[in-house]
């Protein structure tokens, strides 16, 4: 009897051990890949973690962001003669190629007679204006040097609302400064929209702070890849019709648009855009463009398009939106033709019109 009781006890102990081992393997998966149990599993883990830092992104991008000093001369009346006055404007720029092509804002260098670029290693270089595009407020400069640091770029980058971004520039000539924010809204990134003080439909909207001197600097993501060229903060009028800045709303030209503008300027000395010569509105929930304005000297007028017409297809494809259609026109080489199908009058007469696209001028 004692031997049987002892045997039962042994079997129960073995079964209990197997059961406990199974429970431990379920609760502590680390034990499955280890031959020994680490005491660290039972020790309280510390709550300290490595601090979140974007220093790696800044180290990649910051060397390619330069300070720009543009000098112009005004004549100021002084008794019976005019005294020339030197004016220096402050801005930033981004090195896009290793042989010295720099993207910046047109308003940074507009009207300047001398442009000096200061690299982050302290070198100062004279810059030449290659060309400008007032429609996007961009300009391309060139310095004579080689093996310069280039900002990281990606043609596959897609801007999304909520992305974290870092703005790099030289505000108030304090030296290179970083501000951080998120993308609040995005534009289409096309060529058709005209940029003005009150029109930022193509631009990236974000809340990374920009101050005087930041214009033309780099907007990068958390990996240091170029997202856009910093431009300006939003302005509005107060009750007394004075211009005032609006806190928390800042803009940058999207990288894809800025790169296309730069490539055109380098290749042709200017940006070549197709021009149709209409303005229009869309129908809610429907495709097509209702033409509400026609340039009397433009290509559309010469082809017979009138106010009140509804454009429904372009080159045989349904028109999705005004913006996409005008972008397609902008990217069409001047001299090329586009075929439109339109509806006219109360009878909704269908007509086919071929328009020879002209070049959009800066005037």
UniProtKB/TrEMBL annotation:
Keywords: Hydrolase, Membrane, Protease, Serine protease, Transmembrane, Transmembrane helix
Occurrences of domain PDZ (ranges): 265-321
Transmembrane regions listed in the UniProt entry: 6-28
Superkingdom of this protein's organism: Bacteria
Any Pfam family matching the protein: PDZ_2
Family annotation (SMART domains): PDZ
Family per record: Belongs to the peptidase S1C family.
PANTHER family: PERIPLASMIC PH-DEPENDENT SERINE ENDOPROTEASE DEGQ, SERINE PROTEASE FAMILY S1C HTRA-RELATED
Protein name per its UniProtKB record: Trypsin-like peptidase domain-containing protein
Species, as recorded: Bowmanella yangjiangensis
């Amino acid at each position: 009897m004692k031997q049987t009781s002892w045997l039962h006890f042994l079997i129960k102990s073995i079964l209990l051990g197997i059961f406990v081992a199974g429970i431990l393997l379920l609760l502590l998966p680390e034990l499955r890949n280890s031959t020994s149990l680490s005491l660290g599993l039972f020790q309280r883990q510390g709550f300290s973690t490595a601090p979140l830092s974007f220093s790696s992104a800044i180290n990649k991008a910051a060397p390619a962001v330069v300070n720009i000093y543009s000098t112009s001369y005004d004549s100021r009346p002084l008794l019976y003669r005019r005294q020339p006055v030197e004016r220096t404007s402050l801005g930033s720029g981004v090195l896009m190629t290793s042989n010295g092509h720099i993207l910046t804002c047109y308003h940074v260098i507009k009207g300047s007679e001398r442009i000096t670029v200061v690299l982050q290693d302290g070198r100062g270089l004279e810059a030449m204006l290659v060309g400008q595009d007032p429609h996007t407020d961009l300009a391309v400069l060139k310095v004579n040097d080689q093996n310069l640091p280039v900002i990281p770029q990606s043609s596959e980058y897609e801007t999304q609302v909520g992305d974290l971004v870092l703005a790099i520039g030289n505000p108030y000539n304090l030296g290179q400064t970083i501000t951080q924010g998120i993308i609040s809204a995005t534009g289409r990134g096309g060529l058709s929209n005209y940029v003005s003080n009150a029109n930022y439909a193509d631009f990236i909207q974000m809340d990374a702070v920009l101050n005087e001197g930041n214009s033309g600097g780099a907007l990068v993501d958390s990996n240091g890849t170029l997202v856009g060229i910093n431009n300006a903060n939003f302005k509005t009028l107060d009750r007394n019709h004075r211009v005032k800045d609006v806190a928390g709303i800042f803009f940058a030209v999207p990288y894809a648009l800025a790169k296309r503008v730069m490539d055109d300027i380098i290749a042709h000395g200017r940006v070549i855009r197709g021009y149709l010569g209409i303005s229009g509105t869309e129908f809610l929930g429907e495709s097509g463009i209702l033409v509400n304005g026609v340039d009397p000297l433009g290509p559309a007028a010469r082809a017979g398009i009138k106010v009140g017409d509804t454009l429904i297809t372009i080159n045989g494809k349904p028109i999705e939106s005004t913006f996409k259609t005008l972008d397609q026109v902008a990217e069409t080489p001047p001299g090329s033709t586009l075929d439109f199908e339109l509806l006219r009058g109360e009878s909704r007469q269908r007509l086919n019109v071929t328009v020879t696209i002209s070049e959009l001028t800066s005037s």
